[in-house]
Design goal:
Length: 178
């Protein structure tokens, strides 16, 4: 939000000192669509989790164990007032890793219409920022096979062999030290 406000102040400055027409065009382009991320409640993730992660399944299947714990955080990515992406961060220890402060990402999803536009990257970065604020040392998760290249671009590494999650498909454990 601070960055958006700074941008707005620059545009106001340009309005009075540079080219007013350029300002109006730029203003319309920049502010017609507002995209932002903020913390949300678990239930607010379901409208994205269901079509992306649980298509054809009942909405109840979108509830994950630990969703409502005080140590869990959920973030929603909004386009104007519509939620289009979500990520959840759980304080969960994986016994295969020695780091003490571990967090697990679950329910990472962006509606299909908005995929491949860099929005998923912003959600992962928000999750990483949250973990850093909590003094976390490691982020891990179970990534769908199709998502592995996406996470590798963000410097996550696979650990171990692939495994199957019933009715969902092949997954890999991935991790990154923060």
């Amino acid at each position: 939000m601070k960055q958006l406000l700074n941008r707005f102040c620059i545009y106001i400055h340009n309005l009075f000192t540079v080219n007013p027409l350029a300002f109006i065009i730029e203003f319309k382009l920049q502010f017609k669509i507002m995209i932002f991320i903020h913390q949300i409640e678990a239930e607010e993730t379901f409208s994205v989790r269901q079509p992306v992660l649980r298509p054809g399944k009942p909405i109840e299947s979108c509830h994950f164990e630990g969703d409502n714990l005080g140590t869990t955080a959920h973030f929603g990515l909004y386009k104007n007032d519509k939620i289009i992406g979500v990520v959840s961060v759980f304080k969960v220890q994986n016994p295969n890793f020695i780091r003490k402060e571990q967090y697990q990402i679950r329910g990472m999803a962006v509606l299909e219409k908005y995929q491949r536009k860099g929005l998923g990257v912003q959600l992962v970065k928000k999750a990483e920022h949250y973990v850093k604020e909590k003094k976390g040392e490691l982020i891990w998760f179970n990534a769908r096979e199709s998502a592995v290249p996406f996470y590798e671009k963000l410097n996550y590494k696979t650990k171990g062999s692939p495994f199957e999650i019933s009715e969902i498909g092949t997954h890999f454990v991935m991790l990154k030290c923060i």
